[in-house]
């Protein structure tokens, strides 16, 4: 998670049902954690898909190690 000094208070309208579903899916306790973790995961997935687009058809099978 982000360091405490990097957090900024915001106010948004959020669908309660979607928030509850995300809270359950992510396994976190607070709504603030749901929002922070969701935003981080979206950013990570965008980076992943950019990598996938850039390396399309250029990586040989088995050239990337599994972690």
Q: What is the alpha-carbon Rg in Å?
A: 17 Å
Looking at the structure, what is the overall shape?
A: elongated
Give the structural class.
mainly alpha
Count of helices? Answer: 2
Q: Biggest sheet, open or closed, and with what strands and sense?
A: none
Order of helices and strands: HH
Q: What are the segments in which pLDDT stays under 50 over at least 5 consecutive residues?
A: none
Distance between the termini: 21 Å
Strand content: under 5%
Helix content: 40-55%
Assembly type of the shown chains? single chain
Mean pLDDT: 87
The tally of strands reads 0
Describe the protein's topology.
Elements: H1 16-26, H2 31-54
Describe this structure in words.
The chain has helices at residues 16-26, 31-54. It has a domain at 15-54. The longest helix has 24 residues, at 31-54. It is built from two helices and no strands. It is an all-alpha fold. Helix 1 (16-26) packs across helix 2.
In short:
This protein is mostly helical and 67 residues long. The chain has helices spanning 16-26, 31-54.
What labels describe this entry?
elongated; 2 helices; 52% helix; 67 residues; single chain; mainly alpha
């Amino acid at each position: 998670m982000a360091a405490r000094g990097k957090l900024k208070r915001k106010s948004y309208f959020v669908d309660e049902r979607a928030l509850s579903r995300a809270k359950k899916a992510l396994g976190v306790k607070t709504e603030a954690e749901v929002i922070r973790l969701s935003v981080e995961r979206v950013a990570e997935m965008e980076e992943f898909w950019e990598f996938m687009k850039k390396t399309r058809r250029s990586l040989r099978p088995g050239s990337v190690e599994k972690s």
